[in-house]
Amino acid sequence: MNLIVVGVSYRTAPVPVLERLVTSPAEVPPVLAQLLAQPYIGEALVLSTCNRVEVYAGVSAFHGGLTDIVSVLAARAGAAPADLAPHAYVHYDAEAVRHAYRVTTGLDSMVIGEAQILGQLRDAYAMAAEHDATGRLLHELMQQALRVGKRAHAETGIDRAGQSVVSAALNLAAVASSHAAGPHATDSEPAGSHAAGAEPVEGRGVLAGRSALVVGAGAMGSLAMATLRRSGADPLYVTSRGAERAARLAELYDATAVTGLDLSTVDIVVSATASSGHVITPADVTGPVTIVDLAVPRDVDPQVAALPGVELIDIERLGASLSADGGLSADKAAVEGIVAAEVEAFLAWLRSSDVAPTVAALRSRADDVVAVELRRLSQRRPELTDEQRADVARTIHRVVQRLLHQPTVRVRELAAGPGGDRYAALLRELFDLDVPSPGAVNGVPEVDS
């Protein structure tokens, strides 16, 4: 079983393509079922966030597995595989491990170092495991990827900026709204009082004097509400299809839960729902307002951006604004070093674990040979007592185990190094061992994540 990652992200595809691929939690189980029904896929996991959709899979052959995954994703996007292929990226074996680690450490994120991806990957793995879509390979990869992500955040300053997609988007909103007074900017904190790039949105008071409405009371909506409150926006409102969830979120952040959309009463709107259609259309916008659309598929009709006085910040615009590394070059280099070392450690484990079935098969072959010879001895020397037979059996087993000990220890050591797979293959060839391909196994030690 080999590891492959096939994905589409904001870097490789326009938002309309990404929108068609985004998979909600409710849609993940049938997608997993479709993947596992393919001939070359033995394990699968789907990671779907606002800026990437990725399939991690254990496959029996590279080209066959790639074709299977692309066909499932293309069908979901309503496109031909050939049309989707230019927007996809592929990582295989060692590079797939490296990519997984770069994802969990935040190196591959739109906002470098953001920690949200750890929770998103953990949820994706839990979903796959719940539906029996993971085996030994993906189980170990996910456990180690989560551990590496936590290690990078603990040992480097990669997340010292403290930004997330939400805070980065609101930083743009603060700059945008500073150029024109919103409908409810206060006299004590004029809307133009914060120059572009003056301080990050997490700073208290950056959005003081701006009123804000959050549309959606899910995880992203909750993060938006928390960020708005820390940045001084007030008053705050929240609306959601789930009135109870909106009320709970409003209570947590001293906000007001409202029904319906009235954008004329606020300076900033943050929309983060799981809706499959547009939540905000041109008809909903009646005056100047800054709108942050954090949803994929998009909550806001793109035509809203053409309305006078409207600033629309979506994932596409946010991605274009975050091309710089934010002064994190040294930290990025440190994390890349961690990733490189951890990739080698994982590959060593993989090579070592791949030889285990061969070693087990060799020992099983030895046990079979001993059993046959003991039966022959019993037939030739029926006068031996049970005690004598037991002594002979113990002696033979001891001799065989001692003969096998050093070669099996050494082959494990050799298998852990580069090119180690050839030692297991040689052992199988020498002893004519029939070793089945390893499937899903239980009991792999888990890493606390």
UniProtKB/TrEMBL annotation:
Key words, A-Z: NADP, Oxidoreductase, Porphyrin biosynthesis
Recorded metabolic or biological pathway in which this protein acts: Porphyrin-containing compound metabolism; protoporphyrin-IX biosynthesis; 5-aminolevulinate from L-glutamyl-tRNA(Glu): step 1/2
InterPro entries: 4pyrrol_synth_GluRdtase (IPR000343), 4pyrrol_synth_GluRdtase_dimer (IPR015896), 4pyrrol_synth_GluRdtase_N (IPR015895), GluRdtase_CS (IPR018214), GluRdtase_dimer_dom_sf (IPR036453), GluRdtase_N_sf (IPR036343), NAD(P)-bd_dom_sf (IPR036291), Shikm_DH/Glu-tRNA_Rdtase (IPR006151)
Annotated ranges, domain Quinate/shikimate 5-dehydrogenase/glutamyl-tRNA reductase: 207-318
Site positions (Important for activity): 99
EC number(s) per entry: 1.2.1.70
Segments forming domain Tetrapyrrole biosynthesis glutamyl-tRNA reductase dimerisation: 335-433
Sequence ranges assigned to domain Glutamyl-tRNA reductase N-terminal in this UniProt record: 6-156
Family matches, as Gene3D superfamilies: Glutamyl-tRNA reductase, N-terminal domain (3.30.460.30), NAD(P)-binding Rossmann-like Domain (3.40.50.720)
Binding-site residues for substrate, renumbered to this chain: 49-52, 109, 114-116, 120
PROSITE patterns: GLUTR
Lineage: superkingdom: Bacteria
Record GO biological process: protoporphyrinogen IX biosynthetic process from glutamate
Residue positions binding NADP(+): 216-221
Other remarks in the entry: During catalysis, the active site Cys acts as a nucleophile attacking the alpha-carbonyl group of tRNA-bound glutamate with the formation of a thioester intermediate between enzyme and glutamate, and the concomitant release of tRNA(Glu). The thioester intermediate is finally reduced by direct hydride transfer from NADPH, to form the product GSA.
Subunit description: Homodimer.
NCBIfam families: PRK00045.1-3 (NF000744)
Similarity comment text for this entry: Belongs to the glutamyl-tRNA reductase family.
Name of protein: Glutamyl-tRNA reductase
Naturally occurring in which organism (per UniProt): Rugosimonospora africana
